[in-house]
Amino acid sequence: NGRKKILEQELANEAKALDAAKKALADGKATRLGDEARNYQKYLDRVQKLQDEVTDRQKNVEALRRELGM
C-alpha cells in the first residue's frame, strides 16, 4: 500500500535525523563554544536546544511506529 510505503520512508528519514541529533548533542556537550567557558548558562541553553531536538525526533519516530503498528 502506498501510504504504508510513505510512512516507512518517513520513519527511515526520522531515524537518520534522530541519529544525527544524538551525535550533535554528544558533540555539543563535549565542547564549550566561545564565551561559554565564562558563561555557563549559555552552554546550558545551547545543550538544552540540542536535547529538545533529540526529544522531538524520538517522539516523531514513536508516532510513526505507532501509525505503522510496530
Summarize the structure in words.
This protein is an all-alpha fold. It has one domain. Helix content is about 85%, strand content about 0%. The chain contains 2 helices and no strands. It is elongated, with a radius of gyration of 16 Å.
List the helices and strands and how they pair.
Layout: H1 2-30, H2 40-68
Number of contiguous helices: 2
Number of strands: 0
Rounded radius of gyration (Å): 16 Å
Which structural class fits the helix and strand makeup? Answer: mainly alpha
Domain count, please report it.
1
Strand content: under 5%
Give a concise summary:
The protein has helices spanning 2-30, 40-68.
Keywords, separated by commas or semicolons:
70 residues, 2 helices, mainly alpha
